[in-house]
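Why show two proteins at once? Because comparison is the fastest way to build intuition. When a single record is shown, students tend to memorize it. When two are placed side by side, the eye starts asking what differs. So, the first record is below.
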Amino acid sequence: MSEAFLFPGQGSQRVGMGRDVAAALPAARRVFEEADDVLGFALSRLCFEGPEETLQLTENTQPALLATSIALYRCLEERGRLPAMVAGHSLGEYSALVAAAALSLADALRLVRRRGQLMQEAVPVGVGAMAAVLGPAPEEVAEIAAEAANVTGGVCAVANLNAPGQTVIAGHREAVERAIELAARRGARRSVLLPVSAPFHCPLMAPAREGLEPMLESVELSDPRVPVFCNVDAAAVTTGAAARDALIRQIEGAVRWVESVRAMIGVGAGRFVEVGPGGVLAGLVKRIDRSAAVSSVGGLPDLEALTAEDSG
């Protein structure tokens, strides 16, 4: 049975993440030390101690989650636990590429720090919004988003296809709020605005893509040692060039998570291990395929439990 490692994106962060593994395991500690050195400030302290409002700033959240995920991954790697394939949700795709040895940790940290800054700068706070629409099929949500955009003259598009019956939309606040009204009229179980600072994965992120593309073009991206299932195509990339292209398009493109998980199952993934805080992706996998085996490694107890399972 092949194993896939999954890496979380924004929303999974919490103060205290990574602290226990960094205190106990040199492999994890080295990752946080490198992150502090590369970024020129104490990212590790922000992860371990907060304050929460500073950690929640997108430009900090993105490198903080990357560092924590890779610290946990390095500990799994050191214990001989290696995946047959990897994927990451949005920001997590950078972690997946580091795990697949396609992108260096230092380059990934610089990229996601800048990515966070550019995403925040792309749309003034309050102008954009995101909402989760629960119930309707993705095709119907896309129709609702298109109608809301047409009525308001703003942008509204599908941003994340997270699980059956859970689709996220993003765009101008007025258009997103109109889409929520339309979804309710069409019988959506529930629609809720998300507590995010910008409308990610929609055409409003074009300035962020334009800003990050030169930086992405300048870094070295090697061919990954295992397939990386990218968000924007829900398909495996096996070359550095394809991985770079997917990262560029991902900024404006929808996260096709349901299709990505099903594609991994289609090539033999029978077990999924979420590597990073939160456990969100493990939950989504179970909603996508109830028969899939899932584990979450968000800290030292999870790491020890998975290792004990191997030796048991």
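Second record. Ask yourself what differs from the first in the token line.
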Amino acid sequence: MKPKWSQELYIKAFKFAAEAHKTQKVPGSELPYIVHVALVSMEIMAALCSEDNLDGDLAIQCALLHDVIEDTSIEYDTLKNKFGVEVANGVNALSKDKTIKSKDERMIDSLERIKKQRKEVRMVKMADRITNLQPPPSHWDQKKISKYKKEAKLIYDNLKDVNKFLADRLKHKIDKYGLA
């Protein structure tokens, strides 16, 4: 049976992401940021096993690299040269446009760009939010928790038809989010 993704491409993207994020921590923790990236890719690997005819290499590379444009000094052209135009386009769509001032408008813009991408890229956005719906940081007040949950519902509403496995996981995480 042919594997759903290339281990060599996984390793290449993982090492690149680890280097790009090497000084960053998972917000609210002392964990290296690569932990978040690895958890998003794990969600994608599980989802890839839930249906056929998906490009596992595209999905996994985008999962591993999804924050490098948004959160590091890595630029689109660097990704395009190293990983190809399809991966670079996917990561670019997953990156929020910092020139848009309103956080709500940035999310809407990002979702609109993501919805124009292949299914595999749209799956990464769901996997990213699943991973981010860990217990909220202790310093968050109820208003911030509610706002984050509302944003997760927006993602769910826009992408729930992309992959049933991820949609079910995201819905479950949203339902449990912020409950003591």
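One difference worth noting in the second protein: Residues 142-159 form the longest helix (18 residues).
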